[in-house]
Each structure stands twice: as C-alpha cells, then as structure tokens.
Amino acid sequence: MRRLQISVIGTLLAASVITGCGQSDNESGGAGNGGDRTLSFRTPPGLSDADMPKITAASVALVKSCPGVVKYWDDLAQQGFTSSTHADSDDAEQMGWDKVVAIEMAVSDKPKSIPVEWNARGEHCFFRIGTEYPPGVSITKTPCIAVCLDKAVPAKTNNTVIPVESDDAEPTDADAKKQAMRMERTLAQAKDDFMAVIKSGNRDVYWPTIEDPVRLALKFWREDNLRYRALFPYSRCRHAATALLSYRGAWSRNDPDKSWLNDAAKTFQKEYKACQQAIAKPDLSLKNIQ
Q1: Residue 21 pLDDT > 80, yes or no?
Q2: What is the mean pLDDT of the chain?
Q3: Could you tell me if 249 and 267 are in contact, meaning their C-beta atoms sit under 8 angstroms apart?
Q4: How many CA atoms are closer than 13 Å to the CA of 132, on its beta-carbon side?
Q5: pLDDT per residue over 259-274, tens digit each?
Q6: Looking at 111, 140, 163, which one is the last position of a domain?
Q7: CA-to-CA distance for 227 and 222, rounded, in angstroms?
Q8: Would the pTM of this model clear 0.85, i.e. be above it?
Q9: Is residue 229 domain-shared with residue 156, that is, in the same domain?
Q10: Is residue 147 within a helix (H) or strand (E), and if so which, with residue range?
Q11: Which domain holds residue 227?
C-alpha cells in the first residue's frame, strides 16, 4: 500500500510531501531536532495517480491548519480517506467546495498526551477538507476541534471551519466573484431570518443559527492582504456583513437610544445594495488600489 509522508520541519508552513511505503501502521517517524517529524498517511487502496494530488493537498492542508494533529499524532490512528464530489457538511456547502476530502482519525481510548478535560478519548474525528478557494478544514465535534487547534474550546462549539494558510490560495477574479455571490446569499438569508426574529420579538433566540454563517463568511474574506486584491471590487459585501452584525448587536441590547440601530440599518441597506451592484457589474479597476 502506498503512503503519503509529510515531513514537518520547524513550522507547519515548511511541510513537504513525498510518496512512500514501508512504515507500519500509525508510525510517525518520531520527533527530530526541534520537534521535526515525519507523518505517514495510508492512502486508499486502488488510488489512481490522478487522485494523488487531491489526497496530497488535503493532507497538507490538515497538517498546516491543525497543529494538534502533529503534536498528538501518537494518540491518533488514521482510519482512512473519503473523497466526495459534493460537500458533505453545511459549512462545506456554504464555502462553495464542490469536492471534499474527509480524513478520519480515531483518538486513542487511552491517550498519552491529549488533555483529559477535552473529552476526546475514543472519539472519531472527521476532518473535511476543501482545497478549492477558499481552502479550509471543516470539523463538527467539539473534542475534535480542540485536538486540531491544540486548545480548549467552549462546549458545543460545532461546525467550525478553519482557514488554510497557503501560498497558492490567492483567488482568481472568478474565485472572488463566487465568494462575493456566496456572501450575498448568506446575507440575504441572515436578513430574512433576523427580520422574522424581530417580528416575533424574541430576544432570547439561539443567535448562532443566524450570526455564525455571517461570521464564517467574514473569517474567509481575506481583503486585508494585498495578495487577495481580486476581492477589492466586492468590498461592499464585507461592509454589509459588518453592518448587519452591528444592527443585530444594537437590537439585542435593546438600547433606549435608537440612533445607533437606525444608523446600522441604513448602513446595511446601502452596503447590501452596493454589494449586489458590484456582483452584477464589478469594477475590476479597484484591484489596482494600493
């Protein structure tokens, strides 16, 4: 059986990939100087040469995004790869990934290094990885999120998508427009859901069902980096998302002074309309702004 070996040298961003075989199951190659080590992934039986780049990209994305996978590798056992042509989680669907590679890892029943308080013992973790723009790792279980990030997370923290830092992640004009269109759809749904909540007058509603998709979309909007200048023509979509969250905050606080609420509402309406106009007719000259 062929294996994929990822050599982690110093920082995760220095990961390199080779194909190889010969190691026993779950063998990591051990830690070298400064914590350097080699992680060995079993590839699916019958994997074609054409599929190898997709599996490689997904494995590298997992290693880059999840420092805990590297740190706790000896407490993890890879169960296999699954590749699907349709996103198989809500977050992955929202990201617009047409293809997802899932890497299943089983946490040891008696982990030696993973903190007990994370309640990860015996868990089966599914890391769903989208390598299309914008790349990321989708995780649905709280203990698995903690293992990935190597830190405790609040209880019931589910459906988290972690961005993948990659030198190849710069969006094309087509990528940027698709991301803007997804943002606009997210805002439209959030606006409708929020209006229903306002009509009901229920300020105790479970906000993550409305707010989390907007925050997720903002997390992957990398406009602050000049490498992502393809997003510049659609900056009003980001402004609309920020305004919607501001309006939500003002409404939930029930401030007696409604000026902040009214200003946020006007800002959202203006920016949301501008977002729609930018998608319909993007001004690509805005990419040249320094």
Answers
A1: no
A2: 80
A3: no
A4: 18
A5: 888 888 899 999 999 9
A6: 163
A7: 9
A8: no
A9: no
A10: helix 142-149
A11: 173-288
